[in-house]
Every structure is written in C-alpha cells, then in structure tokens.
Predict the 3D structure of the following.
Amino acid sequence: MEDLRVVLDAAGSSRSVIVGAQEGCGMATLYAATYPERTRALVLFHPTAQGYEIDDHQAHELSELRELWGTQAWCDELLGTVSPTLFANENDRRWFANWLRVGASPAVAYALNRAHYETDFTGILPAVRVPTLVLYRRAGHREERDALDVASLVPRAHAMRVSGVDHFGIFLSPEIAEEIERFVAGEEAPSIPESVLTTVMFTDVVGSTERVAELGDRGWRRLLAEHHTIVRRELARFRGEERDTAGDGFFATFDGPARAIRAGRAIVAGLRRIDLDIRVGIHVGECELHDGKPTGIAINIGARVAASAEPGEILVTGTVRDLVAGSGLQFSERGERQLTGAPGSWALYAVE
C-alpha cells in the first residue's frame, strides 16, 4: 500500500481510481479506506474478504507451490482451474508459466499466497467510504460468493457480473474498462471524507505513581522529559502522528499497522534503557474526523487494549494481526476479553 502511495505521488496523481484484481484487491481496499481523500473510486475484480484456515490440505498445497512454482505441468494444472479459456490454447499456457516465473521467485510466491490465505479484511471493508464497484464472473460458486460477500460489506457498493467464466484474467473481459468509465462518470466521491481507516496506538508508563514517590517531583520531570523525547523520536522515525499526550501516556496514529508495531517495539526498547516499562495497545478501525482529528469507538478500543497489556507488552487486536500477515511479525494469543465500552469480546494478541 505504501509503494502504491509513493508511485501515485511520483506520477502526480492526487485523486485516483484504484483498481485491484484477485490478491491485489486487499491492497487496493486498504488504500481506499486509509486515503479516501485521494481515492475517487475503488474497483475490485473477484475480491476475497476472509482468508482460509491453513489446514493440512492448504499446507500441502503451499508446499507444493513452493516446490513446483513455474514448472509447466504445475502451471497447466493451475491454469485449468482458474482460467479454462487460457488453458485451451498452448501459447497461452506457455505464456502463463513464464508470467509466473518472471513475476516471483518460489519463496516470494509462497509468502504471498500464505499471507493471502491468512489475511481477513472483513473488519475493514465497512470503513470504505468511496464509490466502489465489485466485478465478478460466473467462475464458480465460491468465487462468486466471495465477491458478493465483499460487495455486501462495503457501504453502498455496486456488484456487477461481467462476461466470461474465468476467475483469473481481468483482461479477458474487455468491456470492464467501459464499465469502470461509466461507473466513475456516474459517481462522485465526497470532497471531505467523514471517516478513515486508522491505526491507533496508546502507550502508558507502568508504575508511574511509585516512580514519582521514589524520584521526587524534579527527578520525575527529568525522567518524563527523556520519555517524551524517546517516544517522539520513534514516532517520527516510523511516520506516526502524535495526537495527544496526557501525563505519561501517548496517543498516536499511523497509516499502517506493521509500522505501528515496529514503532511500539522501538519505544519499549528505548524506554527500558532509562529503566521505564510501558504498556502499548494497537488497534485498526474506522475513525470519524472532527476538525481533522480522529474520534470514535476505535480510539476507545485502542486505549482499552493498552490498559489490558502487561508491563513491557505490545498488545494488538485480531484485526491488526490479520492485516500484517506475511510481514514476519509473530504473535502469542492472549485470549478473548471484554473491553469496557466496546461491544462483544475481542481476541487479543501479544507481539513476540
């Protein structure tokens, strides 16, 4: 998503129609939800909202993918499943195998496909506030159902079936370009978005009352000044935005959960060097904007998550864990908990 933003900046495109196909739909959706002021419309071709559990069968498929990636026989078998139209032509079969080989190494293909299996976008689809068109073909029961599920979760999204029977190959339906043009011409994105998808992070010093008693007011003020310097340095390093500082705690926002987690790690490590422990809570959710400042239940959830953390622990919600699949970050389950002021129970995870 960050690569996409940088490329659009370099191209001078400040308000774009974002089109994603298959696995690319997740990145396109995250961009539209995070930067609605820069997105005129969102178009998704055969998106999937919810990943699939990595059971023994999926694990075997992934291992086979890494071992056989790019070989002609394996590519033929895959193409026969995802695109019968291309499979019928020998030149198309050779093209497809070569396309996979030059597109990714076996290790990268394995990592990307595993991340696609594990990522669940269900929680962020309602945060999309730009005109959205979901395109699908009659490609099979599951693929159609997945696309229609996504359309049902995005507010006011339009679903449209296009020609063909292939799950793969958006280019096989040339009328899609015209459908996108018609859709964009008839839809106008709001000039001032009312809400955005935001990563929120809260920090809180552990045992501050005891440290004040130990150090005295003057010593505590010096230590707190060092604390603020370290936190602000790491926020700047990881492009976090300080939103509020109350005593010994910080509230900051990020445009990506992985960067928030890495900032949290750096802050925890930096403060330990001055003998301070903190709790960190991170959540991703839809925030309403009031005078440019994020508000809403996502903020409350982030604060409650931080309050539930142990000293020195970075605690995240299941939404955060789902959105950083494939990043190399590891988590330990902390069970489901009731968070004051938030409906239902929330699965929490500690960053290892």
Q: What stands out?
A: Residues 304 and 340 are 7 Å apart (CA to CA).
